[in-house]
TrEMBL record, chain A:
Co-factor requirement: Mo-molybdopterin; [2Fe-2S] cluster; Mo-molybdopterin cytosine dinucleotide; FAD
Pfam families: Ald_Xan_dh_C, MoCoBD_1, MoCoBD_2
The protein, known as: Xanthine dehydrogenase, B subunit
Lineage, uppermost ranks: Bacteria, Pseudomonadati, Pseudomonadota, Alphaproteobacteria, Rhodobacterales
Alphabetic keyword roster: 2Fe-2S, Iron, Iron-sulfur, Metal-binding, Molybdenum, Oxidoreductase
């Protein structure tokens, strides 16, 4: 059996030999053309003149395309139709594509693009949350509020009240493989694309719209991405559409890859937030009322900002029961790149907000932050409802947190750190445990569906295909293990094939951590149909179809024992179909976002992390010393893959809240557009001690083999790093540190200085 | 335009290049060895790491002309003569030292350079040596573990799992 085994990633042998093909490695015909965008050099304005003569006459240039030259709809947006491929007259952010150069090489296209003479009359740009609030630059006309109970009277009666705010920076995805697309024109006006995308179906739809053809004239294939993290959910649309349009106009294959700097300037990032809060507890230290104002910097177009901001609201409770709560979400429209999906999809920001409240209140009460958190957890025994009305079932955090705190000696270490800090005037240590409760399902209910195609060939070899895409997370491996396990054959017989809109149509993005849940079930559904057909065919002489067994490479029907290969061959010769499409739709979910009530999540994934840090109060320099994680993946489909997601998720989450700082200047120019100035965690930043364990338990709802989603939840374990730094800063004096994120050395230094000064 | 010739994975490769043609471009486009990946274009992510005359080099930071006459090894040249995986390659696979795989060729090449200089490095030395190779997926834990294992050291005490 392949299920639950820590098998290596299916592409591992190809990755370690360099044989795995990414889009840029696909052999192309000699006449393949290469594209580059010409970009806006101002954040907001009107294009008053555009002289592209020097671009058109530059070496290697075949064609220059402007908004006026586009054959179909000028739009790359996911939903709102507010994002032109090429700016038609007005520009809305620094780096917005204005025209498209088609040339004989990647470099010649980029060189030519730089020769344009574009004059833009600048208009006052709305760059920051403050700018946007001042002029009420909102999406949807104004803020959205969801509430439960009656906050104001409850707050008035509270024993202790805190108020504060935290700034939370954005995050660049920094997928190692930049955005890239390749389009090849076919006969009959068809277009075939190979694209690095988490959402081949959306690319198909947007390309069809841009070319003015039905969806069936466009086929999109994605074998693998060199990382996605949400950054390839919608941000690949521009390149794919540009390639398809250029291929359509020139009749030649066209490829486009962003140079890294362009990639960082053009594409959207994690939304930065400001969260203002007010919270009250009763005399027993129980939360009675919490109020949040979440300010979200969405950028110039809507993209996925509304569901991102919704998910932030949906995670404003994290693991805690808050009887009276009011969450107001301000989705601010600004002249910056359009913030987009990023692992966690708003959930992390919402969770930072409530974890900050827990940390701040514990400090005010003089309680151990962990004890305060534990005292406010949802009840395990009797499910309580979230602010949006979903009962919190299968809630394991009280036990999980207790186990982690015990095995990692939280209490002993906290005491030891206190003693150590008393003797250490310059260096200060800090420790924090933060929990994660993350809702699994797309909040847009109709996205929670998946299709699959399974073929058994007459030699007993199998191909599987589904709507999910592989970005390194091991989805293909997990789903192949499901198929092999169900057929009772070894992994070598199962070939994983590229995601292809021509094989499985109308798919959802590989996002919301849903890949294995949805596609694993869809593939199992297809496998079950084929097995059922083979079983009915072999069930003779009193053997019932349900008693036909598929195991150990054999099919057993009573006294008849066939190899899987023989069974396939025999079924084929007897005209039994060995191909099936599978389908799955997540049950038990419903959601009304206008009122913020319903049952949006099928279940919750849980985890907790303890992080210990040390800071230098004279410089703000800091280091993560030790991390202990206990995480809930239900019954793991592949523990090695799952642990890899947890380790990588923690490091990425900790990077977001510590070292990764995006800086825009007062002209709206992103100054951190390369790894030289934008610091993702490096190998040397990895914690010295890094203990990761899987919670021993199964999902309480019937997911595929009772496993749980693992893509996004571990990212939020990184919140413990921010809280540990806050704890270390707190050791400098009596005041609450009010540390914002990312907690760079500068911020840690300033916070420590402030806290120390108030002593 | 200049003619250059270099040995890439034991094979002589010639081509006409401009003065500014990068070694990474020559390897990928002229020699067709696409396992060398270009990640950041600016010699910071390390995905394009190769060996030039035995030394580890970020190939997007060297001109093809500078490698004229050199002996270049890329990820495609790291397997054993019989085609089986080399020790480091096998260790990356066995210890799950990869996810999306885009950084993997550069990681393997840097690891090979490290183990040549320092056959039994400490964990700290591995981390320091890899500081010029970025990975966005794994959190580095299993990469360090794979390299420690490839050096023949016991990795059972390296936590996680």
């Amino acid at each position: 059996m392949s299920m639950g085994k820590p098998l290596p990633h299916d592409s591992a042998p190809m990755h370690v030999t360099g044989a795995a093909r990414y889009i840029d490695d696909i052999p192309v015909p000699a006449d393949c053309l290469h594209l580059a965008f010409g970009l806006s050099h101002v954040a907001r304005g009107v294009i008053s003149s555009m002289d592209l003569t020097a671009v058109r006459t530059a070496p290697g240039v075949v064609r220059v395309i402007t908004a006026a030259d586009l054959p179909g709809v000028n739009d790359i947006s996911s939903a709102a139709h507010d994002e032109p491929l090429l700016a038609p007259g007005e520009v809305h952010y620094h780096g917005q594509p204005i025209f498209l150069v088609v040339a004989t090489s990647h470099r010649l296209a980029r060189e030519a693009a730089a020769k344009a003479e574009v004059v833009i009359d600048p208009k006052p740009a709305i760059l920051t949350i403050d700018d946007a609030v001042a002029v009420r630059s909102y999406f949807e006309g104004g803020p959205l509020t969801w509430k439960r109970g009656d906050v104001d009277p409850a707050m008035a009666k509270a024993d202790t009240i805190i108020e504060g705010k935290i700034e939370i920076g954005g995050q660049e995805h920094f997928y190692l493989e930049g955005q890239i697309s390749l389009a090849s024109p076919q006969d009959n006006g068809d277009m075939v694309l190979a694209t690095s995308t988490q959402h081949p179906t959306e690319i198909q739809h947007k390309v069809a719209e841009a070319l003015g053809t039905p969806f069936h004239a466009v086929r999109v294939e994605t074998r693998r991405m060199g990382g996605g993290f949400g950054g390839k959910e919608s941000q690949g649309n521009a390149l794919a559409i540009a390639c398809a349009v250029a291929a359509h106009l020139t009749g030649k294959p066209c490829k486009m890859r962003y140079d890294r700097d362009d990639d960082m300037i053009i594409t959207g990032k994690r939304h930065d937030f400001r969260i203002a809060y007010k919270a009250g507890v009763d005399a027993k230290g129980k939360l009675v009322a919490v109020e949040f104002d979440q300010y979200v910097r969405c950028g110039w177009s809507q993209d996925l900002s509304l569901p991102v901001a919704d998910r932030a609201m949906l995670h404003a409770d994290n693991a805690y029961f808050i009887p009276n709560i009011r969450i107001t979400s301000h989705r601010m429209k600004t002249n910056t790149c359009s913030a987009t999906a990023f692992r966690g999809f708003g959930g992390p920001q919402g969770m930072v907000g409530i974890e900050r409240v827990m940390d701040h209140m514990a400090h005010r009460l003089g309680m151990d932050p962990l004890e305060f958190r534990q005292a406010n957890f949802y009840k395990k025994s009797k499910p309580q409802e979230t602010p949006y009305g979903q009962p919190v079932k299968g809630f394991i955090l009280p036990d999980l947190v207790r186990q982690l705190a015990d095995t990692a000696n939280y209490k002993t270490r906290r005491d030891a750190i206190r003693t150590w800090n008393e003797k250490s005037p310059i260096l200060k240590k800090g420790i924090a445990l933060t929990p994660v409760k993350f809702g699994i399902s797309f909040t847009l209910t109709h996205l929670n569906q998946a299709g699959a195609l399974v073929n058994v060939y007459a030699d007993g070899s199998v191909t599987i295909n589904h709507g999910g895409t592989e970005m390194g997370q091991g989805l293909f491996q997990k789903v192949a293990q499901v198929a092999a396990g169900e057929f009772g054959i070894d992994m070598g017989r199962v070939r994983i094939t590229a995601t292809d809109t021509g094989k499985v149509p109308n798919t959802s993005a590989t996002a919301a951590s849903s890949g294995s849940d949805l596609n694993g079930m869809a593939v199992k559904n297809a496998v079950d149909q084929i097995k059922d057909r083979i079983a009915r065919f072999l069930a003779v002489d009193g053997v019932k179809p349900k008693d036909v067994l598929f195991a150990d490479g054999k099919v057993t029907a009573g006294n008849t024992v066939l190899s899987f290969e023989e069974a396939a061959k025999m079924a084929h010769e007897n005209r039994i179909s060995l191909s099936a499409t599978g389908f799955y739709a997540t049950p038990d979910i419903s959601w009304d976002r206008t009122i913020g009530k319903g049952h949006p999540f099928y279940y919750f994934a849980h985890g907790a992390a303890i992080t210990e840090v040390v800071i230098d109060t004279l410089t703000g320099e800091n280091k993560i010393l030790r991390v202990d994680i206990l995480h809930d993946v239900g019954q793991s489909l592949n523990p090695a893959v799952d642990v890899g997601q947890i380790e990588g998720g923690f490091v990425q989450g900790a990077g977001w809240l510590t070292t990764e700082e995006l800086v825009w200047d007062d002209k709206g120019v992103l100054r951190t557009h390369a790894p030289s100035t934008y610091k993702i965690p490096a190998c040397s930043d990895r914690p010295d001690v890094f203990n990761v364990a899987l919670w021993n338990g199964e999902n309480h709802v019937p997911t595929i083999y009772r496993s749980k989603a693992v893509g996004e939840p571990p990212l939020m374990l990184g919140i413990s790093a921010l809280m540990a730094l806050s704890d270390a800063v707190g050791a400098c004096g009596e005041a609450y540190p009010n540390l914002s994120a990312p907690a760079t050395p500068e911020r840690v230094y300033m916070a420590a200085k402030k806290v120390g000064a108030k002593r | 335009m200049t003619n250059v010739t270099m040995t890439i994975n034991g094979r002589s490769v010639s081509g006409t290049v401009e003065g500014r043609t990068l070694l990474s471009t020559f390897i990928r486009e002229t020699a067709g060895a696409t396992g060398t990946h270009v990640g950041c274009d600016t010699a910071q992510c390390g995905a394009c790491t190769v060996h030039v005359n035995g030394a580890s080099v970020k190939s997007c930071n060297m001109f093809a002309m500078e490698a004229d006459g050199a002996d270049v090894t890329t990820i495609e040249g790291m397997a054993n003569a019989d085609g089986s995986l080399g020790t480091i390659q096998q260790a990356f696979q066995d210890h799950h030292g990869l996810q999306c795989g885009f950084c993997t060729p550069g990681m393997v090449m840097t690891a090979a350079a490290l183990l040549k200089e320092n056959p039994t490095p400490t964990e700290g030395e591995v981390r320091e040596y890899l500081s010029g190779n970025l990975c966005r997926c794994t959190g580095y834990h299993n990469i360090v573990k794979a390299i420690m294992a490839a050096s023949g050291q016991d990795v059972s005490s390296i936590a996680a799992e």
